[in-house]
Design goal:
By secondary structure, the protein is mainly α. It is 85% helix and 0% strand. The relative contact order is 0.14. InterPro entries: AhpD-like, AhpD_core, CMD-like.
């Protein structure tokens, strides 16, 4: 059974909050870097999140998969856009990336279903 990505990001966010209190300068720096990299420019926000998702697959980072697929759902990403992103991640990363592409697909479905429930 695949993990619940909603639970993963909830639990990870709680642990990050603890770290924010313990190492505030580091977390402020990380947040500034994230904001700078995510700011729309030549690439729009969705394209940047698709790139982050592909890198999350390559790095095999479950919390990253959760955060970035949740963001993609909020940005209106289609399943086709996600699928093409995952195809590139698998192409570049081989079998291990295929395993995380499957997890990312499940995470996208989980967040899509949750978003549909809140708008219904």
């Amino acid at each position: 059974m695949l993990p619940s990505y909603q639970d993963i990001i909830k639990d990870t966010s709680a642990e990050i909050a603890k770290l924010r209190a313990e190492i505030p300068d580091t977390l402020r720096g990380f947040s500034a870097m994230a904001q700078g990299a995510s700011k729309p420019g030549a690439l729009d926000a969705k394209t940047k999140e698709l790139i982050a998702t592909a890198l999350s697959v390559a790095a095999r980072c479950d919390p990253c998969v959760g955060y970035h697929t949740q963001a993609l759902v909020k940005l209106g990403c289609t399943r086709a856009e996600l699928a093409e992103t995952l195809a590139m991640a698998v192409y570049m990363g081989g079998g291990p990336s295929l395993m995380y592409a499957a997890r990312t697909s499940a995470a996208f479905d989980e967040f899509t279903q949750a978003a549909q429930k809140t708008t219904a």
